[in-house]
Protein 1
Amino acid sequence: MNPEEIISRLIHRDGMMLIIDKPAGVPVHRGPKGGENLEESFEALKFGLPRRPALAHRLDRDTSGCLVLGRHRKALERLMKLFKAGAIDKTYWAVVEGGPETDEGLIDLPLGRLDPTRGWWMKHDPAGLPSQTKWRVLGRGADAAGKPLAWLALEPLTGRTHQLRVHCATSGFPILGDTVYGTGGATPLQLHAREIVVPMAKNGPPTKATAPVPAHMREMLAQCGWSGEAHTPTLPRSAGEGGDPGIGKSRYSGC
């Protein structure tokens, strides 16, 4: 990704952090076999600072949306503490096969490694790490073959590897396009990190950023009732969550 492309994906910029809209299909860091990755483009995001920003968390290769970077060491340390403490609110959008019978709920299933000796694939494991995901149905529909679909807002309360994908699949409604935990197929993974709320300022409101719906998800979301960004439903906020309603409305805010 060239400098112009990575800069065009900025959603938020301030003195402490950047939030970018990660494209699907690109890993965030270099893998053992090399290849294109987002980190190799971070040199273009220094904006006058001596060092390039660094990842405060991860998104899977095929997941798109909000990705937070710390601009310097102290900022990165604070961000990583916030993520570890579960103080950062994240909302993902997903299109799933079938869908839950009710309109909202909580998935509470501990997760562990599928094979401790290789890979990062996960499974429901009663002896695994506690893992919780809140979900809400935003719309329902069907694909071209008439198979039912549902559009979900997913809020991970813990941050396990592949948590949303395993939770949805184990609950009987795998994320559409998931080649590991679902049925795969030609459709790209329908999972998008839609919104993030970061309480970075100690004496101010949290920063809220929203990533626009990517092109590869618009068709399936429309099948479930999504009618564009101007008609997006408003999600109820968690108790105690604040925030400036003006933050994150544009693709780019900050200094």
Protein 2
Amino acid sequence: MKLWPASGKGMRPAFAADNLLWWVLALLGVLTFGLSRLKPLFATLFPDLERPVYEQDSFFSLLLAHLKIVGLSSSMAVVAGVAAGIFATRSNGRQFRPLIETLVSVGQTFPPVAVLAVAVPLTGFGEAPALIALALYGVLPVLQGTLAGIESVPAPAREAAEGLGMTPWQRLLGIELPLGAPVVLAGVRTSVIINIGTAAIASTVGAKTLGLPIIVGLSGFNTAYVIQGAVLVGLLAVAADLAFEKLEKRLARWQAA
């Protein structure tokens, strides 16, 4: 006798997947506020360390600072990438598309550390050079997603819009962007995830991020610090990825409705 119906077997994994985001966020919150309480554990794992838990700043303040830098730099990258992608797909901008793609690709070939080294003499230490480096590094996925999303719009949809007498801007806002939104969102998702991980190196120029325990740990040969910072950055990246996944599913259901 079967204890679970066939539909129940399919629903249980789906239910677990839908709630995975909340489990990851809960774990992130517990560790953010509870790592200091794990001092005995880290002292046991690393008996040679005098300070096995990072205590120079609260992990909550570092998390907020990390989110601030990622949010600002990702917003800059999204605005620049979407605007450049839209311009490159217009009739008067198609001739500039190779140049735009080349410039943006070159911007990502430079390591963020190199961009930070160049930006620090111009802007000083702190968040400014980090924002510049992260924004430059995050533009390419958004640009590629925007180009691919707009180009994925079926030709019949474009022809129908033209037949209705829609202006180019009306076609863009009413047809191309809504239909290409899933692909554009995929590019934004990639950009944000990259920035969450890369933002950790911003602490090398004086910006407060979750990378600060990692940098301090590496410079002071404190493996415990490195683990603590890396775990929080990893959980934040996983949470953001799962959040974008849920957003993409909702967008797909909205388009299908």
Protein 3
Amino acid sequence: MDAAMGLVEWVTTIIGHGWDVVIQRGHAQDWPHITANILHIVLAYALAFPIGWERGKNYNIAGLRTFPIVAMASCGYALAANDLPDFSSDAVSRVIQGLVAGIGFIGGGAIVKEAGTVQGVATAASIWNTGAIGIAVAYGNLDIAITLAVVNFLTLWCLTPISEKFRQSSDNHD
């Protein structure tokens, strides 16, 4: 109960100070900046949602929840890097390198090898792509983000049935 009262007092204090949000660096953020960040994150989520839907409808390991979360988190990390006091191209490079490696690790978990076949590679590649979508949104490259999202979705939606037919025909010839 004390924690809840403390939270209520904290929220009341923030509201009482003209809605300024104080962040760790110790200065107030303006609401237009906060709103822009939120919109970037929501856009990254929305662009990855159709990809997650396509993967999720076939009960893949990664699906409806994973893809939007990866895009949203990638966007969030990139936006946070933009707000660093010593923001530089080196800092951007390190953030992107970390994201690419981390998302590759997540995607690697979607790849399964069994009975002489490998499954989940398209899902892993799509997870990696949604990270790129999030980064592109964060840095304002909406043309890249939209192109990546549309081409990824169409590739999965159009080519998955063809790929499955090839797989079935090769299974019948064994």
Protein 4
Amino acid sequence: MRYIPGFHTVLVRSRFRPQIVDLHEAIPSMDLFGSSGLSSSRLASTNGLITVTFLAALVSAIAFVSSRIISHPLKHIPGSTLATLSTWPLFWQSIRGKRANWIVQQHQKHGPVIRIAPHKVCISSDTGIKLIYGNKAVKTHVYDTFRYRGVKMCIGLPDVKSAHSRRKALLPAFSRQNLLEMEPVIRNHLQHFLDWLEKFEVTNTPVDTFKWFRYLTFDVITDIAFGQQIGMLQSGDSHFIGQVELRNQRNGLVRQYPTII
């Protein structure tokens, strides 16, 4: 016996000759395809379910947009529409390592106070800096990422008292006497920096000043803090800075999604 597609019949191979049998006539009580009434009922139920699902999704989308744009406490702060609705623009720029450049572009477009994510505001003004970084400001979970092997850095302490005691221990390093003792070290690296600038001037070579100022900064800091010279100005090697940039990209991801990294 073999079913013939497209027909309510089967081909029966008997001992004598093939016969075509109508299923509805042979088995009246058996309806393989369902009655028309049952099919209509199922179709109506399916259409109703699709309609209800669509309406529920539409209402959820409207409520979501309303909660981010219309009724949100930060609704009066300008910013791109996509950044207002989702953290993905900031997340994507962090992955690309273009977070700072993107924020600068948003400031140029929307002003000194902008919304870079649904619950994040960025301010580029003296008043805002004093307010945000004042002693009374409460630090968010973002500062939890400032740690190394489980030990939090001074800037990563959310508790004001703990951070104050840690900073107090660092203050003697910036006394006038210590700064005067650092001057020869700084002058030595600065002289290497000036030698490179003169060389570029003689050869009329374009200079990426940002890169070379970073070389100078890293050489001075590592020499003063660790008593060891990286020698970036001497070699012009940016391998160390490349590692730092990779770390910065990772920190950018951690700030957005601290639970997954």
